[in-house]
Q: What sequence folds into this?
């Protein structure tokens, strides 16, 4: 197995063009485990950790552009204000060591339905910036990025450069069920983002279908139901209906981590609760909790 | 050949603490800083790496074996099958000898070893192993242990099985008691497969010796019992196999059975080169036995006042395909099947059976854990039926010193269970929920609640565990103690074959030597077979047994030292009992200080080797289950306070409180660690730890999906440690490692029941058991 170690973005793109079968390594918290257990035998590894361009984030025209190599620990420490949902999700990833290495870019590359970053990216209308040496940059909305179980819209010669997201203008929450209280893969997860300026609601479901997905009908229902004008109280019936619509958006399976029935139920509870927190924050003029 | 790099050497015990002090462990700092040398760190130049081909099927016939493709891989030095086993083809921990070194013509569980490869690189060995062509005729696995009880002849998975052991207990007249009972309650319970989940996977190094034998460096729990099994399989005499304990990363029973020892020995003998084998995490789940899963059916009757009249019990333990420790686990489940309660009429039928499910054997608590979940659940059920709270129903039926166990054995040492319950109940309760910190709520930082749906529950659990081996087994321990002056300072060298598995045994040994000999400096020799048998580091027995052996050997050395001083002192020193060792000096009552130990010793070396035996026990009667089968009995009681998110089925254990009677505290720091750790392991069984099996196949052989408690799952503990001495035991001590593993599980489940109102008859409790979907 060849080990490719470019230090610049241009070299990385060239290497990927040259060796489309090379498996990119960002933090390595997924890839290296699979290699250690011989679950994968790629012809080459393309180590992106030394690529400086991926290691930072920036604000461009009012939008955040977060490099694919920014680890979860920095998302928590530096981006909890503008991206509270993603920061909360990042806080639930693995252990401190994993959060120091693992990154949103790596999560996107793996495209696992259980990846913790996906639901808040969906709820926050993130856009994934990918690039190839041959065709340049493509901007893929998160909702169009996930194609199947561990399959994404990334072409073999493309690499993930960054994701783009607007700073939160309303409350965002992330909630994840696991069978222990830390260091656990999602049994299922849910993210919500309120976009009051557009009177819109974003959602994201994790471990609830072959891909992370939005609950579009739930979003539309809620956008029409919420009293955006006067920030009036949330009717309990509306919160419950929202939970039911989220549940209906899911297509979960039975597996060793949980049953389909439990996942569907838990999603409805998380949807109801996170909505309640978000709307109460909005009424109080706040944008949601930062990750602890 | 030279010793390998990272093999253990002599270790100076830190500090100056004697018995009762919280002396620090020599391995503690090394472990938390990542410097400790585990068996997986062993290295010697020129060594090969071994790998094991394991069965993917729970039950299949082997129709052909083609090792050609593996042998053709460059770097491969050997590919071995059952035909290459130099000696006996089977082994077994308790004399059953039913486990093939390598599968012969069929496999009986997923992961059963079939072939071995040695290669220059571990990856080469693993890839070559995968290339070995096995022709399989897949058979329908036997996976229902209760069906085996019903039809043991029809569902044999191997020559011995069906039923490995049926141990009945018959006391009094259950039918008459049932007719007389004012209250009768019944329950059926299930315990899933728990894994030891030690952090250091099975590893070791085999080095061919000049005499044609082999030197083994492995992480094990019982050197001499390993050797007894290894030598015949390697076709060697007992004296040709030598073993040194390598750094052990936890054991909990999972290293009692052999794993890679014979395999590495075969490869080393075959290639003439040192061979290292080190399992990865996934292989480790197939490399050792687990805790027996159990089905338990209980019926209790009592007077209207809640005094127990009878217990009618059936326990079915699934041992998997080979015997391992199933015979003794079944014996424990029977003899401790109704717990520490006085019950005049008892019928117990405990069965250990063979199936094609994962192999099961020893794990902390050893048969008593499964029964404890059931009998404690029954006590709560009975209390509710009698209108009594959980503490009162237990107190009314609690054993005490002089009580009779189900086996008829009298509890001769103090057993103040009722008092322990009263103390436990009186302990302060934890503060109310603080919803401002997610880490204190069910779900933790995964933020499933800000307090909504969270209900608090409180539950109690009681457990009784036998300490040391039972049923007539003479599990002796040996210690060699050598006293000499090194660099002007008297130094005690303590040498045993007892396995330090992380429990802190070597620290205790040094404390005992300091106390008995009055020296400051103690050095611990590596555990190996150059000294006699220490018995197993299991059954909470090493403080008692190897501690007892070190104490006895030290007493012999001290007597010799005093005799030496006496000879030097002339007539005054010959008065029996006139001389003692105190404060590093030999003192005569009549003549005062005769000199420091160093002065008395001079260049003399005093060495003594002593065996220590506990009081003999007897077998259980095969029909009535009566007998004085246990050496010592230990009690622990737990109170659990939990917060349950009743909408999501997520649990946060808020606090565990425990009262345990340990007879004598040898090292409070270590002891509290044992109680914390045992309680955490019980918490794991209550809420998350299970090897999930379907059709004989393990579905979660990884730490991604086999979950063990983290620091955010294990709460702070309140401990009340009692010291009611057992006059039979060294220093009056009572083994302490296992009892807390028993009682924390039922206490936590009872608390979750209290919060949810659900019956919860199976552990581990899963979120979907707690909600209606």
A:
């Amino acid at each position: 197995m060849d080990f490719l170690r470019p230090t610049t973005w241009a070299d990385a793109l060239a290497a990927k063009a040259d060796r489309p079968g090379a498996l990119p390594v960002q933090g390595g918290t997924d890839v290296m485990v699979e290699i250690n257990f011989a679950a994968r035998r790629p012809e080459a590894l393309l180590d992106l950790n030394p690529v400086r361009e991926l290691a930072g984030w920036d604000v461009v025209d009012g939008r955040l552009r977060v490099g694919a190599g920014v680890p979860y620990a920095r998302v928590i420490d530096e981006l909890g204000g503008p991206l509270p949902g993603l920061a909360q999700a990042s806080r639930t990833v693995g252990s401190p060591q994993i959060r120091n290495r693992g990154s949103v870019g790596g999560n996107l590359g793996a495209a696992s339905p259980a990846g913790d970053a996906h639901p808040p990216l969906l709820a926050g209308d993130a856009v994934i910036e990918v690039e190839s040496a041959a065709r340049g940059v493509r901007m893929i909305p998160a909702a169009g990025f996930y194609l199947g179980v561990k399959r994404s819209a990334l072409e073999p010669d493309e690499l993930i450069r960054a994701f783009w997201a607007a700073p939160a203008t309303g409350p965002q929450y992330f909630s994840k069920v696991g069978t222990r209280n830390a260091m656990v893969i999602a049994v299922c997860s849910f993210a919500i983002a309120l976009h009051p300026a557009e009177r819109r609601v974003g959602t994201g479901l994790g471990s609830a279908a072959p891909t992370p997905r939005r609950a579009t009908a739930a979003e539309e229902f809620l956008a029409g139901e919420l009293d955006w004008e006067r920030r009036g109280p949330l009717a309990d019936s509306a919160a419950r209906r929202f939970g039911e619509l989220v549940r209906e958006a899911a297509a979960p399976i039975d597996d060793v981590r949980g049953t389909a029935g439990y996942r569907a139920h838990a999603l409805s509870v998380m949807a109801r609760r996170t909505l309640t927190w978000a709307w109460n924050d909005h009424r109080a003029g706040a944008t949601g909790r930062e990750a602890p | 050949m030279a010793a390998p790099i990272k093999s253990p050497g002599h270790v100076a015990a830190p500090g100056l603490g004697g018995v009762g002090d919280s002396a620090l462990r020599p391995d503690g700092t090394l472990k938390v800083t990542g410097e400790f040398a585990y068996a997986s760190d062993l290295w010697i130049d020129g060594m090969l790496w071994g790998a094991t081909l394991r069965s993917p099927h729970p039950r299949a016939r082997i129709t052909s074996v083609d090792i050609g493709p593996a042998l053709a891989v460059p770097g491969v030095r050997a590919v071995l099958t059952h035909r290459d086993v130099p000696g006996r083809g089977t082994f077994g921990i308790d004399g059953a000898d039913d486990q093939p070194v390598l599968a012969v013509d069929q496999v009986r569980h997923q992961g059963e070893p079939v072939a071995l490869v040695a290669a220059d690189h571990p990856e080469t060995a693993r890839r070559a192993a995968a290339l070995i062509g096995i022709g399989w005729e897949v058979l329908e696995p036997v996976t229902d242990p209760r069906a085996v009880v019903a039809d043991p002849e029809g569902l044999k998975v191997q020559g011995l099985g069906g039923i490995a052991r049926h141990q009945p207990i018959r006391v009094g007249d259950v039918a008459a008691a049932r007719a007389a009972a004012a209250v009768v309650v019944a329950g059926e319970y299930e315990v899933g497969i728990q894994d030891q989940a030690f952090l250091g996977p099975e590893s070791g190094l085999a080095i061919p010796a000049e005499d044609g034998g082999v030197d083994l460096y492995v992480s094990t729990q019982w050197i001499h019992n390993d050797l007894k099994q290894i030598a015949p399989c390697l076709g060697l005499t007992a004296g040709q196999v030598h073993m040194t304990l390598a750094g052990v990363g936890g054991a909990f029973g999972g290293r009692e059975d052999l794993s890679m020892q014979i395999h590495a020995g075969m490869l080393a003998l075959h290639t003439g080169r040192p061979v290292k084998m080190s399992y990865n995490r996934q292989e480790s789940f197939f490399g050792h036995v687990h805790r027996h899963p159990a089905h338990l059916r209980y019926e209790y009757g009592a007077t209207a006042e809640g005094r127990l009249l009878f217990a009618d019990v059936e326990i079915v333990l699934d041992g998997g395909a080979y015997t391992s420790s199933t015979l003794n686990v079944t014996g424990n489940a029977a003899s401790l099947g109704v717990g520490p309660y006085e019950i005049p009429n008892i019928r117990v039928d405990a069965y250990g059976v063979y199936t094609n499910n994962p192999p099961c054997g020893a794990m902390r608590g050893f048969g008593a854990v499964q029964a404890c979940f059931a009998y404690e659940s029954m006590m709560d059920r009975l209390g509710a039926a009698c209108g009594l709270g959980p503490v009162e129903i237990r107190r009314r039926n609690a054993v005490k010193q002089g009580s009779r166990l189900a086996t008829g054995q009298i509890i001769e040492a103090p057993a103040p269970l009722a008092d322990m319950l009263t103390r436990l109940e009186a302990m302060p309760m934890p503060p109310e929920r603080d919803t401002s910190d997610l880490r204190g709520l069910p779900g933790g930082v995964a933020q499933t609640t800000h307090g909504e749906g969270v209900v608090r529950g409180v539950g109690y659990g009681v457990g009784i565990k036998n300490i040391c081996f039972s049923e007539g087994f003479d599990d002796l321990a040996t210690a060699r103690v050598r006293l000499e002056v090194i660099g002007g300072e008297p130094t005690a060298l303590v040498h045993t074959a007892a396995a330090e598995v992380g429990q802190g045994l070597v620290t205790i040994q040094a404390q005992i030597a300091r106390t008995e000999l009055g020296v400051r400096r103690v050095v611990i020799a590596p555990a190996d077979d150059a000294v006699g048998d220490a018995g197993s580091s299991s059954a909470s027995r090493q403080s008692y047994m190897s501690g007892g052996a070190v104490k006895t050997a030290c007493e012999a050395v001290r007597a010799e030292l005093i005799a030496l001083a006496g000879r030097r002192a002339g007539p005054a020193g010959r008065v029996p009992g006139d001389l003692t060792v105190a404060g590093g000096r030999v003192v005569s009552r009549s003549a005062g200080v005769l000199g420091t130990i160093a002065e008395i010793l001079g260049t003399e070396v005093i060495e003594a080797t002593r065996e220590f035996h506990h009081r003999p026990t007897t077998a259980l009667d095969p029909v009535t289950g009566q007998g004085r089968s246990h050496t010592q009995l230990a009690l622990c009681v737990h109170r659990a306070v939990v917060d349950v998110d009743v909408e999501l089925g997520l649990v946060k254990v808020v606090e565990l409180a425990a009262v345990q009677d340990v007879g004598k505290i040898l090292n409070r720091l270590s002891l509290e660690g044992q109680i914390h750790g045992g309680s955490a392991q019980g918490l794991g069984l209550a809420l998350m730890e299970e090897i999930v099996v379907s059709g004989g196949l393990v579905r979660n052989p990884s730490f991604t999906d086999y979950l063990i408690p983290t620091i955010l799952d294990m709460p702070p503990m309140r401990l009340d440690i009692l010291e009611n001495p057992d006059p039979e035991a060294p220093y009056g001590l009572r083994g302490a490692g296992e009892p807390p593993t028993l009682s924390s599980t039922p206490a936590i489940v009872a608390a979750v029941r209290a919060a949810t109102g659900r019956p919860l008859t199976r552990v581990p409790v899963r979120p979907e058991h707690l909600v209606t979907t």
Q: What stands out?
A: The CA atoms of residues 17 and 169 of chain A lie 39 Å apart. The first strand of chain A starts at residue 2 and ends at 4. Chain A has a mean pLDDT of 96.
